[in-house]
Design brief:
CATH topology: Ribosomal Protein L22, Chain A
Distance between the termini: 20 Å
CATH class: Alpha Beta
Helix content: 40-55%
CATH superfamily: 4'-phosphopantetheinyl transferase domain
Number of helices: 5
Oligomer: single chain
Radius of gyration: 15 Å
Largest sheet: 3 strands, antiparallel
Mean pLDDT: 92
Number of domains: 1
Strand content: 25-35%
């Protein structure tokens, strides 16, 4: 059963402006530790690739926060929600801390897709509830 759906469109130029204003601190505030390592590697190879990676993750976290119905209120914190790629390349949601506990207590599962084109990054998240998987 669908618990929630979220979508977000992000202007990559806006993320670039924030990165120019705040430097790496902006990425450190938004990205979790695994995402931050990927962002640093991509940025070292190509600043444009790093920027697009940051924008897609920003967009996906916004969409996820909408899908779970919390917005950016606790236990939803930027760094506790990571959008990582499986070996196949498929993006997946990995949660930590209180957000992971909150999510698991509700027997939720998230599906995410993201894309970027020209000046925009977009993402779509569907969160499912499976009452058969509710923890005891």
């Amino acid at each position: 059963m669908i618990y929630g759906i979220g979508t977000d469109v992000c202007d990559i130029r806006r993320i670039g402006a924030a990165l120019a204003r705040h430097g790496p601190r902006f990425a450190q505030r938004v990205l979790g530790p695994h995402e931050l390592a990927v962002w640093q590697q991509r940025s070292a190879r190509s600043p444009e690739r790093g920027l697009r990676y940051l924008a897609t993750r920003f967009s996906a976290k916004e969409a996820f926060s909408k899908a779970i119905g919390l917005g950016l209120h606790l236990p939803m914190r930027w760094r506790d929600c990571e959008i990582l790629n499986l070996p196949s390349g498929q993006p997946s949601v990995q949660l930590q801390g209180a957000l992971n506990d909150w999510f698991a207590a509700r027997a939720l599962r998230a599906h995410v897709t993201l894309s970027d084109e020209t000046d925009y990054a977009t993402s779509f998240v569907v969160v499912e509830h499976n009452p058969c998987n509710t923890p005891p």
